[in-house]
User: Fold this.
Amino acid sequence: MKKRGFEIELLPISLSIHGGLLHDHLFQYKNPLHSGAAALCESRLAALTSVFFSHHSQCIGDFDSITPVPSSRRAAPLLIAQKVIALRDSINPTLNATTENNRHFDPGRFQVTRDVEGERILLFDDTFTSGSTIFGAYAALAEAGAVIVGPLVIGRHFRPDKDDSSKALYSWLKSRTWSEDNCARCDGERRDPDSMI
Assistant:
């Protein structure tokens, strides 16, 4: 996927279908109805991430550190990454969010907080919706000289009722069964080579 001169090959752990179970967990983790909801969803999202890493670490590639994408006002994926044993020792927060997410690409939205020249950084986020957050974080790290691995997101959000391309994607997905043994990279099956899955 391309945006303003940047091209990324997003690696989603799963699709977050609007109104579905993963979407609900991601929403509750960010906007909890009560104090226990965020912790419960955080643990479940960490478990999903852990299962993915145990099966697909080779699909991600080699990296020196993990940078969770921060948020200026909500729970950030750092809390999830800290619960995943395979990730815990590699976490090195590298970005500060300087502005709120307004769903528009803003290369100045993040500030790099340390020297990352030549470092292979796994960029990790919880949700990909419009792409503005991931692209902003990617732009800041790339400009600072980092080599970005991933980016890895827990849920690639989409609404089956939003437009024709989402309806077609949902129709394609309904005929497939989720398996922890396959991911968007190792399985090699995509609805469209230029799409996000």
Observations:
- The chain has one domain: 8-174.
- Strands lie at 2-3, 6-7, 11-17, 65-68, 95-97, 110-112, 120-128, 147-158.
